[in-house]
Design a protein that fits this description.
With 181 residues, the chain is mainly β. The chain is built from no helices and 14 strands.
Length: 181
Amino acid sequence: MKKTYFMAALGILAFATPLIAKPVKAVAKPAVKPAAAAPVAAAAPANGVNPFSVTIEFKVDKLVVEKGVSQHVLVSSSKVLPGDHVIVYAHIANAGSVAGENFAASYPVSSSMLLEDYDGVKYLVSVDGGKSFGKLEKLMLADAAGVKRPAQIGDVNAVQWLVPLVPAGGKITVQCKALIR
C-alpha cells in the first residue's frame, strides 16, 4: 500500500528562487495518483502532516594557500561572486515513520549559474523553466523564428534529482556544482 505526498515550494535566500519538491510515495498506504507531473503548490496527506522537508545549502569552493600548500576548502556562504565555484546541496528529510519512495526535487538554476558536473546520471535538467526534465543531449530549444537546435549546458534553467528511497526518520543529500558567471 502506498500514499502520495506533495511538498510546497520553498524559498531559497541565495538566489531568491524556489525549490520544488514533487510527489513522494510513502510505503504502506493506499496508492493515490499525483494530479499532474508539473510542480504543485501543496496537497496535505489525510492526517494533515507532511513528514518530508527539503532544505538548501550553498558552499563555495575556495582555494586556500596555507604554509605554501594549496587546498580546496568548502565554505558556507550566503554571498557568491562571479568566478566562484559553488556546490548546491538539497537535504531531503523524512521525519515520518514510513519510508518515502520515488521522490523528485527540482531546483531552478539562476541565469548566473553554469552547471559544472552534469553527466546525465546524477540529475536531469530542464531548459523550459522546469516544465519538463530530461537528459541534456535529448532536449531541444527553438529560437524566435521557430528554428530548433540542441540544448547546451548554458541553456539549463532547472535541475531535478530523483531519489528512489528516503528512509523513515532518515535524510538524503543530493548536490550539483556550478560556476557563478
